[in-house]
Amino acid sequence: MPRLGSRVRIPSPAPDFQLCKLLAAPERTIIRQRLILLALLWLSGACLRLTVLAVPPVIPLLHADLHLSETQIGWLSSLPPMLFALAAVPGSLIIARFGLIPALLVGALLNTLGGAARGAIADTAFLYLSTVVMAAGVSISQTALPPLVRAWFPDRIGFTTAVYTNGLLVGEVLPVALSIPLVLPLVQGSWRLNFVVWALPVLLTALVLAVCMPQLGAMNNAPAAKPRWWPDWRRPLIWQLGLIVGGVNATYFVSNAFLPDYVTAQGRPDLVSAVLTALNIGQLPAAFVMLGLAGPLVTRPWAYAVTGVASLGALIGMVTSNGYWIVFWAGVLGFTNTLVLVLALALPSLLSASDDVHRTTAGMFTISYSFAMLLSIVGGWLWDLTQRPIASFAPVVLCCVVIVVLASTVKRAAQH
After folding, report:
1. Mean of the pLDDT values across residues 74-97?
2. Disulfide engineering: 153 pairs with which of 45, 86, 160, 393, CB 3.0-4.6 Å?
3. Mean pLDDT across the stretch 32-61?
4. For the chain, what is the mean pLDDT?
5. Confidence of residue 43 (pLDDT cuts 50, 70, 90)
6. What's the confidence (pLDDT) of residue 41?
7. Start-to-end CA span in the chain (Å)
8. CA dihedral sign, ordered 389, 394, 397, 402
9. Mind giving me the DSSP string for 181-211?
């Protein structure tokens, strides 16, 4: 026992404790880095739709200012899916030659330029041209995201796909929910300035990517020594994924394009903002649900069949209802359509080799958006031909049937 007044030697920390402190710092760095990557994926997902979905809320203004017919609105709505199809393979080439992050940045910058330029001149041809530039940028960016998921989070593909899809869905909700009540009043009702406002977040995201990525390192983003970029069109998986995602995309684009004029034709122009908001906000609960369920369900055929039938039921309810019941069923359609979207978007990362994800993704998007483009045009043509608003939703019925029919192929696709 030490004497009174003597110094008491306090033992130094145990070596194990010191080792834990040394190990904790790298662990915290890894956690912070992974959170930053998740945030970048979420922001990039949001940018895929912010500029695209700035159009539906101002369709009545485009009718009044540019005198667009329903067929012309159909063409305007079909341009994004057309470019999503045409620019997907060039996006794969950019990824193969320069890497994932350069491709993502190129896409974001084109998205910003084209999205803002749509408001530069009140001219139909220029509106179409700038929309082409914007949509090409979106296509390049979205082709890069599944390979990034595989490169950054190979052990959490289902969850990470749901994260960037959540960002994509928020990017769909914000323009349709805020353009009419908030943005348009701030810009004195100008549809041209509305387009500029929604291009700004894309530019900011590109700047964040440019600043953050050098600090995070290459992280498997560099191009391969012998890059391959052309999709293997003989692979059945690409066609299966393309038609499933095509059914989802066509349902979404057709609904967003024609719901505003549909409710206006029903004598309820006051429901335009509500019905578009419901269609898009209805997707958010599904995105959160799929954070936990995407992995177990991704190769289950019944999951695709059930969602296809549910989407068909929601469509029937929407076109046979009146007033706020249309808003309700639009929300249900958004929910069911998103369930299968998240599942299908995870498949290229799960079922392809790490150096082949971009090729599979490009092929899938080429097929899926070609399908959606065609059906958007058909929807507008059917309306003009029959003079019946309900006819524009006939392509959605076909989409639901396609998803149900192909559900049985999903399990076999996982074996390739």
Report:
1. 88
2. 160
3. 90
4. 84
5. very high
6. 94
7. 74
8. negative
9. IIIHHHTTT-HHHHHHHHHHHHHHHHHHHHH
The owner of tokens 């309820």 is: 268
- 49-82 per-position pLDDT tens digit: 999 989 988 888 888 888 888 778 878 877 888 8
- Element of type H or E holding 134: helix 124-152
For residue 23, what pLDDT is reported? 47
CA distance 208 to 350: 28
CA 348 to CA 92: how far, in whole Å?
A: 13
148 contacts 34 by C-beta, under 8 angstroms: no
**Closest by alpha carbon to 218, among 413, 33, 31?**
33
Spatial CB neighbours of 341, under 8 Å, sequence gap ≥ 6: 165, 245, 248
pLDDT digits (tens, 9 = 90+) for 114-147: 999 998 888 889 999 999 999 999 999 999 999 9
What domains, with CATH codes, occur in the chain?
32-223+231-413 (1.20.1250.20)
Given the structure tokens 């060039």, which residue do they identify?
A: 90
Residue 279's nearest CA partner among 146, 154, 173, 153 is: 173
> For residue 18, with 0-12 CB atoms within 10 Å meaning exposed, 13-18 middle and 19 or more buried, which class applies?
exposed
Q: What angle do CA 160, 350, 412 make, to 5 degrees?
A: 135
For 395, the enclosing helix (H) or strand (E) is helix 394-413
Sign of CA dihedral 26, 31, 32, 33: positive
CA 80 to chain centre: 12
